[in-house]
Amino acid sequence: MLTRRALVLRQELLDRTRFSVAREQQGLGGKNEKLLLEDGSGGRWLFKVIDAHRPLSLYGEVAASALSVAADGRVPPVHSITLRINGQAVLGSIQRLSPITSTLEGVPPEKLSGSQLEQVLELQVFDWMAGDHDTKGQNKGVLPDGQLVNFDKTQFWRFGGTDRLDWLYHPNARPGNRAEFNDQIEPYANKVWKAWIAGKLELEPAAISRAVGRWELLEDELLRELAQGFAWVRSVLMPSPMHLSAGELLERLLARKRALRAEFAALLARASQARGVPRVSLAPAEPGLRDRQVQRLRRLVARLQAEAEALAPPPASRAMGEEELSVPMDDEARLRVLKFKSSDEPIERALADLRALLEARRHPMARAGVAEYIERLRRFGRGQVRREELEHVVHGRGY
Ligand SMILES: Nc1ncnc2c1ncn2[C@@H]1O[C@H](COP(=O)(O)OP(=O)(O)O)[C@@H](O)[C@H]1O
Ligand SMILES: [Mg+2]
What we know:
The protein is α+β, with helices and mostly antiparallel strands. It contains 13 helices and nine strands. Helix 7 packs across helix 12 (366-380) and helix 11 packs antiparallel against helix 12.
């Protein structure tokens, strides 16, 4: 209940926010093109342009962010949005810019505090559940109080099903890359386990147990609900041999959750052996975990509610992202956004995608995916499609 409430409030807050393009465009790195935006109170947002031909990463980010509300609250809230930039529709994900002071990129694990090492382990539990292995130091932010933030879930379940929980598993490494580059993009938790095996630092397995315990508290039904938009879109977009029906993917996620404690216990046992110490075991989750989870969610909901009350409701006529954003001609960011393919043929592409979505029509959550396309068509379609028609097709026939 609290998780659902928090997600609804997050969406309401976003719907009430108006964006403009930030004057300063700092480069954050990463593969996707980015644009920094500002809201009316000077808050800064990161808009990540998503290739509309390959929107899966967007749904992965959104799903991971929703799952994180329920599990650990360490992934920033991420939403999908279509913005109109210099007259063009650009699909992307949007999130607040976290006030981080640094990331873990280039930081040797021995330099981390005990609490940060615990957090790395907790984030590893999340990332394993999400089947995300793009978990390099650059994707782990450090807040001024030392707390870690878990960024960039665009690779949600990218290797899921064929992946392994192992400090040597590094699927994004390529033999052709420079060794330093492979090292830079190595999952940060792998570095931590290697350092532990080498006796360079100490780890607190209770942190793993806690993180696992939080997933164990998450009901199957809620996990399904939070991941099914992604599962459904993936089932439509991902060809074989990686294809899975939405139901199959959800079953695999649930299976991963059920095996979570055993898998981490096995990891710990193997690492103990590699370090040459007696087997370190994983204690059962501490009592009181459920209460602490409920308290965390209550605080989150209260904070979101207060934020929503402080913001004026949106004008009834306004749809999210409707305002025209203009990026100055001489700004390099404009060129980056405009050269992007997602702006070229939004209507044709959206129609093709919609057809695919409709053909597959299997799951009620298809609405979440289809609604985004309908919104794009409504706003940017030049009369080729009537919204009523699409809505009738989608909502009237079995979705
Ligand atoms: N919400 C955010 N707040 C602050 N920094 C962020 C945020 N999201 C990402 N970053 C930083 O920017 C980098 C690039 O963003 P990321 O989401 O990883 O993009 P990409 O999908 O292109 O790799 C991240 O590695 C992280 O260091
Ligand atoms: Mg990244």
